[in-house]
UniProtKB/TrEMBL annotation:
<dbReference type="InterPro" id="IPR036390">
    <property type="entry name" value="WH_DNA-bd_sf"/>
</dbReference>
<dbReference type="GO" id="GO:0000166">
    <property type="term" value="F:nucleotide binding"/>
</dbReference>
<keyword id="KW-0378">Hydrolase</keyword>
<dbReference type="GO" id="GO:0043138">
    <property type="term" value="F:3'-5' DNA helicase activity"/>
</dbReference>
<keyword id="KW-0347">Helicase</keyword>
<dbReference type="InterPro" id="IPR002121">
    <property type="entry name" value="HRDC_dom"/>
</dbReference>
<dbReference type="InterPro" id="IPR044876">
    <property type="entry name" value="HRDC_dom_sf"/>
</dbReference>
<dbReference type="GO" id="GO:0003676">
    <property type="term" value="F:nucleic acid binding"/>
</dbReference>
<dbReference type="GO" id="GO:0006281">
    <property type="term" value="P:DNA repair"/>
</dbReference>
<dbReference type="GO" id="GO:0006260">
    <property type="term" value="P:DNA replication"/>
</dbReference>
<feature type="domain" description="HRDC">
    <location>
        <begin position="148"/>
        <end position="228"/>
    </location>
</feature>
<dbReference type="Pfam" id="PF00570">
    <property type="entry name" value="HRDC"/>
</dbReference>
<dbReference type="InterPro" id="IPR010997">
    <property type="entry name" value="HRDC-like_sf"/>
</dbReference>
<dbReference type="InterPro" id="IPR018982">
    <property type="entry name" value="RQC_domain"/>
</dbReference>
<dbReference type="Pfam" id="PF09382">
    <property type="entry name" value="RQC"/>
</dbReference>
<keyword id="KW-0067">ATP-binding</keyword>
<feature type="region of interest" description="Disordered">
    <location>
        <begin position="277"/>
        <end position="307"/>
    </location>
</feature>
Length: 307
């Protein structure tokens, strides 16, 4: 957008994945060939939506009525969302493999560039299906990373493995798994592939491709925890012992007459102090020592009759 208005960006803004799309391109010749074969078999009679429905294996009435489900490529990309197939079609139009013709309902046709791919003379490099969503997530994650707390060693191990896989496959790390997926994985801490499949962002394809390698990290961590617990059990310093209750229950002693008299006298004095407090708004709820002394002096000056 800055370039369009004549400005120059010094570095990626991080709000979208456009700047990173070139780095994320991989060899997609096989899937591109499926798309090109589908377009060629339709003989320029249908547009991008119909092509996407055929490849995704849609059971829409328009597809079945035209017997498009009988095409050889029908359902070959059923594991991909139709909107991602449409996005790929738009990319191939932009890259010159396909052309749109006709209005108001444009149809797709192959170019010589696409024919070369079908003849095995050229390869196609582009974004993997769903890469746009992954790059959008990555842009959001970069913003959140600045505010998020430092992750623990488990999360760092997951990121290290992701980086290792990404380097081997020559793709950005987020194409393997996003940070959000790794965080969810660390929280769930799966011990089986079935538990791993519950992690957000781990689909059937990635579970088969990467699941075992990431699962190994959690199994190693669990083994370390078990060894630590075993050491704790064997160490006498950390053994839990309940204190022996050797004290005998002492019977409650009945208060003496002198003690009862002193207690009754205390209640009587306290009752008088409370009455005096209620009659004097300025006095505090809890009498101070100075105030208690004045009450006692008044009692002495009034003589024995006051008692």
């Amino acid at each position: 957008m800055l370039t369009y208005f004549g400005e120059k960006a010094d570095k990626p803004c991080g709000h979208c994945g456009n700047c990173e799309s070139g780095q994320a391109k991989v060899d997609v010749t096989d899937t591109a060939a499926l798309i090109f074969k589908t377009v060629r078999s339709l003989h320029g009679r249908f547009g991008a939506s119909t092509v996407a429905d055929i490849l995704a294996g849609s059971r829409a009435k328009a597809v079945l009525d035209r017997k498009l489900d009988e095409l050889p490529t029908y359902g070959k990309l059923s594991f991909v969302k139709a909107r991602h197939i449409k996005s790929a079609l738009n990319s191939y139009v932009a890259d010159g493999y396909l052309v749109r013709e006709g209005e108001p309902y444009p149809v797709l046709r192959l170019t010589n560039k696409a024919e070369d791919v079908l003849e095995g003379k050229a390869n196609v490099f582009g974004l993997a299906f769903g890469a746009e969503d992954a790059m959008a997530d990555a842009a959001v994650e970069r913003k959140l990373a600045a505010r998020s707390p430092v992750h623990g060693s488990l999360f760092d191990k997951l990121r290290s493995l992701r980086k290792e896989i990404a380097s081997a496959e020559h793709v950005p790390p987020f194409v393997v798994f996003s940070d959000a997926t790794l965080e969810d994985m660390a929280v769930i801490s799966p011990k089986t592939l079935e538990e791993m499949s519950t992690v957000r962002g781990v689909g059937e394809f990635k579970l088969r491709k990467y699941g075992t390698r990431f699962l190994k990290i959690f199994l190693e961590e669990a083994d370390k925890d078990e060894k630590l617990r075993e050491t704790w059990r064997k160490n006498p310093i950390f053994k839990e012992t309940e204190p022996e209750d050797t004290a005998e229950e002492m019977p409650e002693e009945e208060p003496s007459s002198a003690a009862l008299f002193a207690q009754l006298k205390f209640y009587r004095i306290t009752s008088r102090q409370r009455k005096a407090c209620r009659s004097t708004a300025s006095l505090p709820t809890t009498p101070s020592r100075k105030w208690q002394g004045s009450v006692l002096r008044q009692r002495k000056s009034s003589g024995p009759s006051a008692a």
